[in-house]
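> @MW can you paste both from yesterday?
MW: sure, first one:
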Amino acid sequence: MLSSLAASAQIGGAGWTPQPVTFNVQRPYNVPEDTRYWFTNNIYHCLVYSNDAPFSQGSTTLPRTEQRFTPDYTSGEIQYQSMEMCPGNENSYCIFQIHTGDAQEAQFGSTTFMLFWFTNHGGSVHDYSGTTLATNLADKWFQVNVDHNLVTHQIKVWINQSLVWTQQDNGATDFYLKDGVYEQNHSPTLQMDTYITNIQMWASSGTNVAGPGFQLSATPGSQALTPGGSVPYTVTVTPTNGFSGNVSLGVSGLPSGASASFSPTSVTGSGTSTLMVSTTSATPAGTYPLTITGTSGSLSSSATVNLVVMDFTISATPSSQTVTVGDSTNYTVNVGNINGFGGSISLTSSGLPSGAGASFNPSSLTAPGSATMTVTTSGSTAVANSTLTITGSSDSVAHSTNVTLQVNDFSLGITPSSQTVTAGNNTTYTASVSALNGFNGTVTFGNVGGLPSGASASFAPTSVTGAGSSTMTVTTSTSTPAGTNTLTIPATSAGQTHNVTAPLIVTASGGALPAGWTDTDIGAVGIAGSASYNNGTFTISGAGSDIWTAADQFNYAYESVSSDQIVIARVVSETGTQSFAKAAVMIRETLATNSVEASTLLTPTNGVAMEIRPTTGAASINVAGWVKGPVPPQWVKIVRSGNTFTASYSADGNTWTQIASTNVTMATSATAGLAVTAHTTNVLNTATFDNVSITAGSSFTGVFQLQNEASGLVLNNQGSLTNGSAITQWTSVNSSNLDWTFITTSNGYYQINSLKSGRDAVVQGASTLPAAKIIQWSFGSSGDDQWKPVLNADGSYTFYNLHSGLVLADPGGSTSNTTQMDQETADGGSNQEWKLLSQ
């Protein structure tokens, strides 16, 4: 059938120019194209079902499959020709349409002219108003010619080359053509199709045929933001003349530090995209025209919007300020407005020297405006020039300006570093002021602290400006006590005070030591020491690095002694030249710097300790470590019993606390007295002592009862005369059963011998175990019958057995007369302590 159709020429008129036939296919969006539209054997087949979706998602139009011919035409005359056929076995509804162009559709309406052909109406052709133009065309090919003259605005229609219709168009000047098949409210699932072939188009001379295109627009026309912020624009693509291509989007004119992104980055046909413009803190303020461009092949369209970047400025005056340590100073901070910036600006500062602080009044403001920044320094602020950074912040926007802060001060020195004066005389120091970092204030000298009683100080001159010196004269009286005093010299300028210290050593104007006492420096002390005595008080000044290591350096006031000794004194005061300066009671074998010694030492702040040098030249030993807490005034005691030395301390001289007890092999002839060291060779430590006593210790000669401190009962041999009898305890009465003597052995130990039996107190079976019983036995050689008495702080004794190392005890502190004594591990319990009751 098709082969019999010859190609036809245009109808009517002259000067026609053939036009290329191009079109876009529009079909239900939710099905593949080849199920609704295909081209076979030069025939276009258009198909649609009544329950198909529209040709674009979201559209409310009826289903259709159509060819939209391109380009649009806007002037002259154009003619369309094709061969059409509708199958007669289907309820087909086919259409040809002259449509107003996209740009004028809103003004003139969409459809200018429509032709319908129906197979269920005998294959008839109708115009848009329902007028029948041709009939009996079902299952038949028929020729359609449509002529549209934009000069006369007249439309003519030919069916099989017969003119069947003439009408006027709607007056628009932009049109395009459509051909295809449409659903028009038929029952669901009906199939409608048409066949189209031999499509041709001609244009008369002077016809303007417009190609497909698009228009780009953007809203809003202007957006404002601050650096670091982001703003959106809506970009709209409007197609013209049947355009359905892909439009790629771009933007130019962005300021420095700004970036842009589109979402989506391109639009197909018509649609919108969001342009997001983002700035950084470095984006400069200003108004920037942005050109948004859409591109599709050789087609492009642009729109212009404005980007307004608002900001603020910050500055400070003056650019530099000078302040003395401890004072404050002010700067004025100014903020300015650019492009209408209206945010709240918070102020902060950085770069302040240590010990300085800054505050703003007000702490935040809007531009334009100003605030006062107050910088306050303290005594610890460093003397230096600092660059301060003042920062204004508003959301993500921050700007800074710098100023300089010059901090000056003065320093104070004293020469010489120490002076020595005899009580009743004067001495002088030179106080020197140095200017730091441009300091030029007036420095006034204040009241000197640390002066001993009876002393005063004066300055000449009393103040200096910038830098200079003054002579400080210290005047003492005859009543000023000997000792080392730390003077504190203050100097003040504009509320800032600096101090310097210097030792003042006052030596006594008289006061000889008691008869039998001698004073001397031991070792290389650095500064000569001294000792004096007045009304029961010893004042001793000593330098030296320490009483410690293998050689001592200190001042020593002493007596020569022999055998057992008890040395007691109260340390009333200590100048405290160092935290480990020492004031001590001491028993010393010789005056050599490396001599054997035992001492109880008190420091100004670090407590009390027992130290010994066990052999000549040996390193000193701190026997039990430092007991923290005790400070002057404090009683100290050192006791020698044979070669056993015991150190104790007391707050009141009545209740004593033992520090330690230990053995030191020392010659019988020795020295005993008071020792003072400064723990430095540069100054003297001056200590005062009272309640000083050096007395001979017990020689354990005579007859004694041994009274247990826990039970109050005394040692008892029960009247037995035989070896092996138990030694118990009894109430103290006049009985030889309770009387004992001490027999000295060659090694410094004693036999505790019963006056009743002549036998010794012995550990049964020479046991070395705790709880072994005590019996009486004849003196032997195993050492279980030899005991060392160690003096306790309260005057009692603890007896250590030579063989076992354990001590004589009343088991559990029993108060029973029949309890047998035993030996126990020494624990300081009162049941292990015995008083000697002389008979």
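MW: second:
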Amino acid sequence: MNKNQKLILVDGSSYLFRAYHAMPEFSNSKGEPCGAIYGVINMIKRLQQDFVGSLIVLVFDAKGKTFRNDLYSEYKANRPPMPEDLASQIAPLHDVLLAMGFPLLVVPGVEADDVIGTLAAQATQAEIETVISTGDKDMAQLVNEHVSLVNTMTESFSDEEGVLEKFGVPPNRIIDYLALMGDKSDNIPGVPKVGPKTAVKWLNLYGSMQGVIDHADEIKGKVGENLRATLAQLPLSYELATIKCDVELDNSLEDLAMKSVDRQTLIELFTQYEFKTWLRQIAEGELDSIAESELDKPQEEIANYDIVLEESVFYVWLDKLKQAELFSFDTETDSLDYINAKIVGVSFSVTAGEAAYVPMGHDYPEAPQQLSREFVLHKLKPLLEDKTKAKLGQNLKYDMSVLKRYDIHMQGIAFDTMLESYVLDSVATRHDMDSLALKYLNRTTIHFEDVAGKGAKQKTFDEIELDIAGPYAAEDADVTLQLHQVLWSKLSNSIQQQEVFNNIEMPLLPVLSKVERNGVLIDADLLIQQTSEITKTLDKLESQAYEEAGEEFNLSSPKQIQKIFFEKLELPVIKKTPKGQPSTAEAVLQELAEDYELPRIILEHRGLNKLKSTYTDKLPDQINPTTGRIHTSYHQAVAATGRLSSSNPNLQNIPIRSHEGRRIRQAFIAPEGYQLIAADYSQIELRIMAHLSNDEGLLSAFKEGKDIHRATAADIFAENLEDVSNEQRRHAKAINFGLIYGMSAFGLARQLGVGRNEAQEYMDEYFKRYPGVKRYMEETREIAREQGYVETLFGRRLYLPEINAKNAMRRQYAERTAINAPMQGTAADIIKLAMISVDQWLEAETPQIKMIMQVHDELVFEVPCDMIEEVKNNIRSNMESAAKLDVPLIVDIGIGNNWDEAH
């Protein structure tokens, strides 16, 4: 290497796991996983930006055991095997990095740490400035006047002083520090109960680990006993924690250098994994190496970010916004509670690379004078409420709800990058701005934790200094604009996806904002009473469990349950954990509960305890003091199929069949003078199956208004409709819904409590009677395999990255998803369209009526008592006309003083 270059040593294995966990589902259209490949390349490209002109050397762990396993057979014994979909990416990643020209070292018998330590020692001897890029705390022992550490994930830098500040000991005492504490992840034995504080205290008192050993008799209490009991193993812990700095390498530091780029290999690999942006750059001759890509040039957007403190500058930006065809907008607030959050500032961008942040509520010592909130929002209100002025943002539903508190009804929302990404591909990545910027812009953004901190010490945004808050807030608006430009160009390739975005997701955004703000009234006293009653039942179940077990134990402890079940009571082992222990998972307990009382009691206890902790305990505390109501948050961009989810509280998981679940629903009440209307689509997924499969038998049954499960039972069991027993109907219902979810004969047999052969006979008879369903399933699997995705009736794409996976279990799961997703996704689209339609009618005709909840296929409304009949018919009409199928959509309507009564 060039002696004047800085040396960057990359802990490649650390990068590998970080990239994999950041994008675990990322794959090409053939289902080949490539998130780790993509992520590592991106991180190294970023490293090139940060250390221009430096020599970057990549070091990875080799397969197999190392000398440490010879020293201690239990070394890293607790670590699970590497996931198969990660292991398959290592070889192609190495091929890409070598083709990019990087020196890459993989040395058997030692760890990457040891190779890095050896190169760092050689660099120190040659007085070459060296930076080790890693997140591994063990590397701190290598720091000296020539060697420092950088953690690109946290953007933290550690020299000798930094190590002392971070760990409390200097670099030359890190090994002592690690040996005393031990390491659970590496299974290095240390002194039990000794953590960082005790280790630092001892080392500061006695100088070294040997000093601690020499004074072991002076250390009192339980920790002193633990120390004396482990004195013999401390030298081994020290040796295991020591990074080897004299590994015999085939190449010395002087031999390492960048090589020329192997363009052909890169083209082949980028084609295989569908890295289209990088492919285009190579094909167009834009780069001789990946480092020269436009994406890799240091970005200078921050130089064009304004922090607006003066009225004159604000008016300049206001004029820009008025003239713009489209601008991005974002609010910064002091809370995630959209009902009570105060606006701290707003940001906007009109041109990529330029943005402004207008602070109006930062309050900290020596904070500069800011424009008043009243002034800024008063000036922005006409623009934000102008339907003709197109706006875009990231998760604008939140901003819309916050602005409503200031009497600003935001309109003209044209684009939301979160929803653009979600419609484009619901499963390939998370849809937060940071993840999208990394994926589509190859840009690492400033994270909220970077400016606000983490945990208990995290600041609210109004407490953050403007020189830190300003670039973060302005970047949000800028990056959102840039993301839109990329995402919309991709969505433009599919008319169907554009229609899903324009006709379903974007019109739904303001509807959801309204439903969230409406909230729902809760009877807190009823829930508190239910908590008391559940607590008594739980105590009773615990006593029963102790009696069955013959001893007291923790019903929430898998280890204690495992010991009682399989050692004391010798119950049959149904399934084992990856570590070979008998499993106590819920599915196992359910199977055991069929024959044994104790598993049944534990299952009942778990279910009640979950209801109590999730709902009866929490819901009263979630009542908003300002409105007296509960306000959930609906999420459009979470479920892969297009279904909505909700949180704080999660309304989707309140059980309806259990007595206690129905009692929780009784606490969702109508105010005086009102009642609740619950409108629920009847058997919507089966109706969609009939439409998609075009099966004559199903179509006929639905068109004639038959009980579909009774009709199916009559067909399968060759009975007259009126002679079908309840048991036969139950079996038919299990088959109808089981097939939608891709259930196998084995699964059906377990659900019905019959033999596998009998279950298979039921399925064979079903497909004989409904051949269109079988044809639909076979064709859907084939389409999914060919194009890598399936679609809903409205064109929503549901990608299946593992439809052609080599792993049979993953492939079969993807096949089941391929069959179910168009039905579940179409049902999701239909209820979203229904919400839009009903909201338009309410807005125009009856604004005093509130839509207050959406749960699965059900909408819940709060209606004045004297309008019930009129409203009921209009709700049904709007919902039943939300989509045109070859069978009628039917909506069941219920009315009551509480949600349970109305259902």
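> thanks! Residues 808-845 form the longest helix (38 residues).
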